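Thread: Newbie trying to understand structure tokens

Hi all, I'm a second-year student working on a class project, and my supervisor (Dr. K.) asked me to get a predicted structure for one chain before our next meeting. I've only ever worked with sequences, so writing a 3D structure as a token string is new to me. If someone could post the tokens and maybe explain what I'm looking at, I'd be very grateful. Here's the chain:
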Amino acid sequence: MSSPPPPPADGRGTRAALIFALTAERLSIWYEHNQWPTEAQGATLVADWLGRSKRSLPLTDRRHLSDLSDQLARRIAGTLSREAGLYAVHEMMEALDPNYDSDLARSLMAECESLLDGPGTPG
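---
Reply by user tm_fold:
Sure, no problem. This is what the structure looks like when written as tokens:
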């Protein structure tokens, strides 16, 4: 039995999930190496992730999602202690598994969705 096809890359849910995953990745790199990935690095990561399921988004869309994830990651890092930030990253990384349930991850996913509703969001 084959699995259902993945949702379209330009769907709202997929875009929010990409922001969530990129935010987790950015925070992880920040806490491990004290560096923020660039917008271009985030856009490339999105292309790599989507490419695994033979999906794609235009570069402008990928860069926009990368920028939104950067804004969220920096806001999270700026409001949480290092210990709380590391906990948030752990929860976000665990929540990349659809079988993992987390109130924090659901809250952050809702924030990712609200970022998509902001001004200047393509699609």
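A couple of things are worth pointing out once you decode it. Residues 12-33 form the longest helix (22 residues). The two ends are 33 Å apart (CA to CA). Feel free to ask follow-ups in this thread.
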